Each structure stands twice: as structure tokens, then as C-alpha cells.
């Protein structure tokens, strides 16, 4: 991905999130767990949302419709609230820099994910046996999980992991766990 194209993507994302910019700054601190209670707030918010969905006991299509309505409502109300509660004069150059860094990070992660998907699908040309082994195995595991575990619960777990992932990466928790796992066999061999 060229640098010019990435800069254009950042500009487009900044324009797209223009109404949300006052809300994006506090959300960044929540998603990166700048306070100890932020992960609990994320899990609690997602839990309440899924508890309401579970209580409503809607079919799948109605659930998607309700979630879509909720997201549309948020997309409508957040820019209005941001503009009415915070005047544009409060937006500083430092806030703009933080907002641009957030947009740059989103674009970088999006492009990284896209590259990884392209690399996976390039296995089909380069190593078809490996491609089919990995894809069929993953699809079988997914089918088994979907038939064994409640789908709403699976979506709940997926949502929690996706929303906690930026904080996990920022804090280096995954790297710490992987290094502990990597060190565990060595300490067993030493005894």
C-alpha cells in the first residue's frame, strides 16, 4: 500500500468521522484502558446490550434489524450531542493531532488486516493444499462451535474480544502471556 494512498485513506476517514471527533477522543482512552475500570466498563456495556437482546428473544433477522436501528440512532445522535455540548472553539491543535493519530491507527490496522487476508487467499495459488487444509479445518471448527454453542453467546464473546483487543495490544498482555507460555517448557526442562 503506497504512502499517498494511505494518506488519502486517513483524510477520507477523518472526513467520515468529522461529527464523531469529540466522542472519538474519550473512546480512545476507554479502548486503550487508560483507567483500571475501562475494561470492566466495556464488558459491562456489551453484557447489558446482549442481555437486552437475550430478553427480547427475537429471531435473527429481527435482532439484526434492532442492532441496525440502534447503530443508526447512535450515528444520528452522537454528532448532534457532540456539536451541542462541545463548541468547535474547544477543539485544539493537540486534539486534532490525537484525532489524526487515531485515524492513522485505524487505517493502518485496516490495511494490515486486508494484507493478511490477501496473503491467506494467495495461498490458494501458491500452496493450494495448505489453503484447503486451513480453510476446511477452520470452517469445520466454526460449524462445530455454531452447532454446540448458542449463537448469541458466540457473538457476545466475539464482541467482547474485539472491543477489548486494542487494550490487550496496548498493554502488551498477549505478548506477556505468549512469553510465559514460551518460557514454561524451558523451566520444566530445567527441573
Average pLDDT metric: 88
Structural Rg:
21 Å
Shape: globular
Report the span from N to C terminus: 49 Å
Share of β-strand residues = under 5%
Number of strands: 0
Query: What would you call the structural class?
Result: mainly alpha
Count of individual helical segments: 8
Quaternary organisation: single chain
Order of helices and strands: HHHHHHHH
Number of domains: 1
Specify the helix fraction band. over 70%
**Largest pleated sheet:** none
Low-confidence stretches: none
Protein name: RETREG1-3/ARL6IP-like N-terminal reticulon-homology domain-containing protein
Subcellular location: Membrane
Membrane topology: Multi-pass membrane protein
Pfam family, one: RHD_RETREG1-3
Protein architecture, described:
The chain is an all-alpha fold. The chain has one domain. It is built from 8 helices and no strands. The longest helix has 34 residues. The relative contact order is 0.11.
Quick recap:
This protein has one domain (3-190). Helices cover 86% and strands 0% of the residues.
What is the topological layout?
Layout: H1 3-16, H2 21-31, H3 38-56, H4 60-85, H5 93-126, H6 128-148, H7 151-171, H8 173-190
Summary tags:
single chain, 191 residues, 0% strand
Amino acid at each position: 500500500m503506497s504512502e499517498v494512498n494511505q494518506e488519502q485513506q486517513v483524510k477520507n476517514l477523518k472526513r467520515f468521522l468529522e461529527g464523531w471527533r469529540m466522542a472519538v477522543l474519550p473512546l480512545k482512552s476507554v479502548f486503550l484502558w487508560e483507567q483500571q475500570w475501562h475494561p470492566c466498563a466495556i464488558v459491562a456495556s456489551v453484557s447489558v446490550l446482549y442481555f437486552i437482546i437475550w430478553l427480547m428473544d427475537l429471531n435473527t433477522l429481527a435482532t439484526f434489524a434492532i442492532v441496525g436501528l440502534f447503530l443508526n440512532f447512535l450515528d444520528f445522535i452522537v454528532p448532534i450531542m457532540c456539536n451541542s455540548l462541545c463548541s468547535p472553539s474547544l477543539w485544539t491543535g493537540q486534539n486534532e493531532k490525537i484525532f489524526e493519530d487515531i485515524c492513522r491507527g485505524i487505517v493502518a490496522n485496516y490495511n494490515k488486516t486486508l494484507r493478511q487476508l490477501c496473503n491467506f487467499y494467495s495461498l490458494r495459488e501458491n500452496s493450494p493444499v495448505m489453503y484447503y487444509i486451513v480453510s476446511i479445518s477452520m470452517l469445520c471448527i466454526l460449524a462445530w462451535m455454531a452447532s454446540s454453542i448458542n449463537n448469541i453467546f458466540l457473538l457476545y464473546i466475539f464482541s467482547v474480544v474485539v472491543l477489548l483487543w486494542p487494550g490487550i495490544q496496548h498493554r502488551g498482555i498477549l505478548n506477556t502471556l505468549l512469553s510465559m507460555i514460551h518460557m514454561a517448557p524451558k523451566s520444566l526442562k530445567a527441573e
